[in-house]
TrEMBL record:
<dbReference type="Pfam" id="PF13242">
    <property type="entry name" value="Hydrolase_like"/>
</dbReference>
<dbReference type="GO" id="GO:0016791">
    <property type="term" value="F:phosphatase activity"/>
</dbReference>
<dbReference type="GO" id="GO:0005737">
    <property type="term" value="C:cytoplasm"/>
</dbReference>
<dbReference type="InterPro" id="IPR036412">
    <property type="entry name" value="HAD-like_sf"/>
</dbReference>
<dbReference type="InterPro" id="IPR006356">
    <property type="entry name" value="HAD-SF_hydro_IIA_hyp3"/>
</dbReference>
<dbReference type="Pfam" id="PF13344">
    <property type="entry name" value="Hydrolase_6"/>
</dbReference>
<dbReference type="InterPro" id="IPR023214">
    <property type="entry name" value="HAD_sf"/>
</dbReference>
<keyword id="KW-0378">Hydrolase</keyword>
<protein>
    <submittedName>
        <fullName>HAD-superfamily class IIA hydrolase, TIGR01459</fullName>
    </submittedName>
</protein>
<dbReference type="InterPro" id="IPR006357">
    <property type="entry name" value="HAD-SF_hydro_IIA"/>
</dbReference>
Length: 290
């Protein structure tokens, strides 16, 4: 019986010759919310420089690209290691532009208010709202989704549509996990509310990312020539698989504790988890590196 090809690879260089572009996740792959990962940044730089590839970042950040660029620079991610950035905030703004006549109640921290800049949308209290826009927790260091249950029950009882600008459930911040807007959206749906999500794993953000790749390349680039890189099974990996894009799975991210030693993951455990989730990956590596 023929043995399957090894799933674990030394780094991106093992795959680079097969792809013209990468769609690379940000939080958990290029940085941990506190500091950049130099090896990961160098991997993207070499993909562009040595392999002549295109690198587009694809992130569930609920803010527009400009705000995310400032954050990346502040964390030490060089802005010349990638070609463009597509955020969940970007695609969410597109939908909000179409619903701007409906006053919105914002759930999330003040730093995310850039999502609404220039949209001419009125932000109101919950009693006046005709829609809900969630970008995250007011205090993601201390709150849990259950803290929002009474509020969500009131909103759902009024049948208010709920737009989630960040589908992530959790992300790493330093050496701990913190809750994201996706956890609030999940609870709203459990209560019986109607939720719309546009970021990963959903198609709109991938369509926008592939359009950016085509613009940079000067022509359409086939899906078979695009590689997605990410650490989140329910977002990065599921989204890429659903959109028929090959995946380089970063095992040392939010699921790092599930595969044995973070720096030397057990390939059998990685394969088993992918199978349990109904997912596939072209390859896997503990951390993004060349």
């Amino acid at each position: 019986m023929t043995q399957p090809a090894p799933l674990l690879v030394p780094g991106l260089s093992a795959l680079a010759p097969s792809y013209r572009a990468v769609l690379c996740d940000v939080w958990g792959v290029l940085h941990n919310g506190v500091t950049a990962f130099p090896e990961a940044c160098e991997a993207l730089a070499r993909f562009r420089r040595d392999a002549g590839g295109i690198a587009v970042l694809i992130t569930n950040a609920p803010r527009p690209t400009g705000s995310v660029l400032k954050q990346l620079e502040g964390l030490g991610v060089p802005l010349d290691v990638f070609d463009d950035v597509v955020t969940s905030g970007d695609v969410t703004r597109g939908l909000l532009a179409a619903t701007r006549e409906q006053p919105a109640f914002h759930i999330g921290p003040a730093r995310d208010l850039t999502l609404f800049e220039g949209l001419d949308i009125r932000l109101v209290g919950e009693d006046e709202a005709e829609q809900v826009v969630c970008t995250g927790f007011h205090d993601d260091e201390n709150e849990t989704p259950e803290d929002y249950r009474p509020l969500l029950e009131r909103l759902a009882a009024r049948g208010l549509p709920f737009l989630c600008a960040n589908p992530d459930i959790v992300v790493e911040r330093g050496n701990r996990l913190v809750w994201c807007a996706g956890a609030i959206a999940r609870l709203y749906e459990d209560i019986g509310g109607t939720v719309t999500i546009l970021g990963k794993p959903h198609t709109p953000i991938y369509e926008e990312a592939m359009a950016r790749v085509a613009k940079i390349a000067g022509e359409q680039v086939a899906r078979e020539q695009i590689l997605a890189i990410g650490d989140g099974l329910p977002t990065d990996i599921r989204g890429a698989v659903a959109n028929e894009i090959d995946v380089l799975f970063i095992t040392g991210g939010i699921h790092g504790a599930d595969f044995g030693p973070v720096e030397a993951p057990d390939e059998a455990l990685v394969r088993r988890r992918l199978a349990e989730e109904g997912l596939t990956a072209r390859a896997a590596v503990p951390h993004l590196r060349w």
